[in-house]
Amino acid sequence: MTSIEREPEDGPTALVRAVGAAVDRSAVPVLLVRADGRVVRANPAARHRLGDVAVSADRAWTLELPGRAGPQDSPTIVRAGGTWFGRAELVQSTGERVPVSTSAFAVHDRDEDPLIVATLRTPELTLDPPCGVADEVQAVLRASRDADERHDLLAELSRLALRGRMADLLAASADTVAYLLGARLATISRVHADPTTIETVATTDGGDSALTRGSDTVPAFVGTTGTPLLWRGETLDHRIDAESLRNAGFENAVAVPIEGGGRPWGVLAVFGVDVGRSTDGPAAAVSGSDAVPEPSILDEVADIVGAAVHRVGVERELRYRSLRDPLTGLPNRALAHDRIGSAVERGLVAGSCTAVMLIDLDDFKSINDGLGHEAGDTALVAVATRLARASRPGDTVARLGGDEFVVVCENLRDEDDAVAAAAVYGDAVRAPVSVEGNDLVITASIGVAITTTDVPVNELVRRADVAMYRAKETGRGHVALFDRDDRDHRRLQLALSADLRAALESRYLTLAYQPIFDIGTGRITAVEALARWEHPTLGSVSPETFVAIAERTGQIDRLGLWALHSACRQAAEWQAIADVGVRVNVSALQLRRPGFVSAVARVLAETGLPVGRLGLEITETVWLADTAQVRDALTELHRMGVSILLDDLGSGHSSVTYLNRYPVIEAFKIDQSYIQAMPGKRPEAIVSAIVSLAHAFDVTVVGEGVETQAQFDRLRDSGCDLAQGFWLAEPTDAATMTDMLRERRAG
């Protein structure tokens, strides 16, 4: 390969590769030239035209205009948007010069300097020969002039093939071959597969001729066989319907395939060719002669169209990739926004609702942190597949990035339709996903925004985003519909996030303590530490609210460590007056932190609390991303002597099976919804079943949320071990809790 076939420095750029792929198949000699005149590529036809000069070249070449200000002249003219014709010189770095005649134009790309496409033409010959020149010489001059015209026309087709519209190229190609060959009719037909059909896409007669349709036509034969066809007027040619051709007044026809990636993309055909127009025309190309003729005009034009087909295919692929998420293959953010805008417009015309659903996977970061990003990608692909399968005809499912997806739903009747559709997508996500031997139960919070009016795309997405955050605050796997109050609510959440950070720094947060009683003896066995936040202007902020904010904003580690340290320090002081343990709630995010176990050990050492007096309460949602990190952390904590309690049993997915898989669990806390439903046959049966199963595994059971004597009695009758609730004792501050412990010890 010579030095002018490729970029000599850092390799071919994207523009050089794309244009080079388009011109390499062309029979027209073409050079690709940089703005400074440096030649970076020559197609095979150009190397053939240059002959030994190109073969022997081992250094850089530039394209110059002799007699001008300098080598920049030609590129400057071309960069200005024009097309340049004239003589030029190819200059080797050694000083060797090769005269050529060229026409040139520029191909632009937004990320690169213009690339100049220079077509090597036959050197100009004078049309005024000396007196007495023989007729043969005049014939040579005319042939040369005809060749120049042919090259100019083919160069123009090459320009269209590189940067023009496909429809314009097809029409110009049909006109060009008809003109150069003197044909009465020229057509370009498109070959479609499954089933094989022939479609006329360009013709010189301004209509769709019957001669190009049907299974026995010239384009049909070439399109199905992939071989050229020359018909000289024979009536017994069984390959085609020769009678129809003769009835139409045609005495010959020639057709060649247009390649399109391994099979014919289409067929270029001419009918009624003036065989006297060209001695190296299509007849020579298909005559079967042993001589190797010059490429025919028909073949050259077919190659140019084939290059354009390749270019369009590359552009289509690049456009497809630019609008698709590379991981899942779903539409990306740009295409999603385009689809939303189009859907809103169609909804306005049809008088129907359009809904945008923002789907955010709950606590997905824990999968990446616990199992690695490859496992996270596997889970994302699985979720994307499920969402696509759950979509209705006409819905668009796209990935915005990270663990966020968006769905565009059209032709909805009202809000109920939108919420019902969102629930279907939520159910599709919720099925367990197996990743690297881990069964992951993923949930999604979905925000829905609907419109029947012309709402800007960004505003509609923003509304869905606001609704999605409200869904997250409600709990995992919920759907929320946007309403006007959400805007103020979202602003409040942002303000609370900043206030929470300040509260942690200024120690505005406090702990309240609620005792846990032994149902049989009435003794206080442990105290649960509950975080409280008294906002200076808003008053009391619920733990559900500020804990969710802490998890979303990355403050949960700091909040959790503060609560753990404060509770352990207080419990250590209580050891002097009562043998009582302390229970602290732990977020799933905390458990997945690699340094969490060592942090717990450090707190115990600093506060002096005996390890056996600490219990960590974990909700069922911890198990939704059952990872090796969680299992290892719980096992190590249990080995240290820390008690592990499963909180709110029954509020989420059933985790009873984890009794068998995780023997580190020492206690269950039955969700208060079951306790508060008592007395009643069904809730009492459920509570009794949970207690029996837990005792079979030697696990202690706590009934929380006890608010009446009747509830307490039913818990006692079920065999429950411990109880907690307002009826027994409300959460209180450390001083009051200390007095209660002293009184009970004295009593």
Describe this structure in words.
With 747 residues, the protein is an alpha+beta fold. The chain has four domains: 3-141, 2-Layer Sandwich (Beta-Lactamase); 164-317, GAF domain (Beta-Lactamase, 2-Layer Sandwich), CATH 3.30.450.40; 333-483, Alpha-Beta Plaits; 494-746, TIM Barrel (Alpha-Beta Barrel), CATH 3.20.20.450. The chain has 26 helices and 27 strands. The protein has an eight-stranded mixed beta barrel with strand order 19-20-22-23-24-25-26-27, surrounded by five helices. A six-stranded antiparallel β-sheet has the order 2-1-6-5-4-3, with helices on both faces. Strands 8-7-11-10-9 form a five-stranded antiparallel β-sheet, with helices on both faces. Strand 7 (185-192) and strand 8 form a beta hairpin. Helix 16 (485-506) packs across helix 17. The longest helix has 29 residues, at 135-163. The protein is elongated, with a radius of gyration of 40 Å. The chain starts with 13 loop residues before the first helix and ends with a helix. The model is unreliable at 1-10, 67-77, 122-145 and 278-295 (pLDDT under 50).
